[in-house]
Amino acid sequence: MIKEVRQFLEKVAEDRLKEDLEKYRRMALELGATDAKIITTASVAIDEKVRARCSSPRCPDYGTNLNCPPYTWDLDQTRKVVKQYEYGILTMLRVPPQEHASKDYYDFAHHRIPSASKMYEIVSKIQSAAFYDGYHLAIGFGGGPSCKRVFCPSMECSGIKGTGCRLALKVNPTLHGVGMDAYTMATRAGWNLYPIGKSVDPSQIPYAIEVGLVLIY
User: Fold this and answer.
1) How far apart are CA 43 and CA 66, in angstroms?
2) Is 42 exposed, middle or buried (0-12, 13-18, 19+ CB in 10 A)?
3) CB 203: neighbour CB atoms within 10 A?
4) Does residue 8 sit in helix, strand or coil?
C-alpha cells in the first residue's frame, strides 16, 4: 500500500528532489541491494559497441523478446531519452559468482539466476515508488540477463506475439539492451567487477554483480 500519493508537479523544488533521491537510494538498500548511488546522467555510458556485442557473438536471447535487440531502442533513441533526465539511482547487487560463471549458464531448464530476478524487483519497485511520488516519467533498466532468460525461458515472448507482456509491471529493458555500458558505469561508481564467463572458475573471483538503473527526473 502506498503511504502517500502526491500530485504531479511540472517543476519539483530542489530540496524535495534531493530528499526523494536519497529516499530511493535507501529504498534500494532496504530491498536488498549491496550499494546504491545517486548519479547524474552525465555518468551514463552509452556505446555502440555494447549493442554490437549482443550480436557478435550472437546472444541466445537476441530477437527472442521485446526487451532485447533488435526490438529495443537504437542508440540515438537511448541518448535522446537519457538527455531528458538529470538524476538517477544506480544500484548494485553482489551475487555468488557461480550464478554467472558456469558452463551450465545457458541450460535454461536447470540453471537459475535469482540475483537477476532480484534486480528486476528492485528496479521496478523504485520506479513505482517514484511514480506515486509524482515523478510520472521515471523509467527503469534491469541488470544482467534478459527478462526472457530470467522469467520466461520456456515460453515464447507474448509481447512479440502482440498479446502484451505477461510481466509488464515487473520487467524492464536491460542496460545493455538499450546500449548502456553497465561495466563502465559500475567502474565510475567505484564498484569492483571481474570478467565472467563459461571459461572462468568461480573460485577465481570474489563475487559477480548485477547493476540496475532508474532515471528519476
Assistant:
1) 26
2) exposed
3) 9
4) coil
User: Confidence class of residue 110 from pLDDT cuts 50, 70 and 90?
Assistant: low
Decide if pLDDT at 140 tops 60.
yes
- Summarised one tens digit per residue, pLDDT across range 9-22 is 888 999 999 999 99
Rounded Cα distance, 93 and 23, in Å: 18
Determine the Cα–Cα distance for residues 164 and 187; give it in Å rounded to an integer: 36
Mean pLDDT of the chain: 90
| Per-residue model confidence as pLDDT tens digits over 146-202 | 888 888 888 899 988 888 888 888 899 999 999 999 999 999 999 999 888 777 888
Helices assigned H by DSSP within 113-157: 114-132, 147-151
Q: Between helices 114-132 and 14-30, what is the axis angle to 10°?
A: 150
Domain residue spans of the chain: 14-192+200-215
Sign of the Cα torsion 7, 11, 12, 18 reads positive
Tell me the Ramachandran region of residue 63: left when phi exceeds 0, alpha when psi lies from -120 to 50, beta otherwise.
left
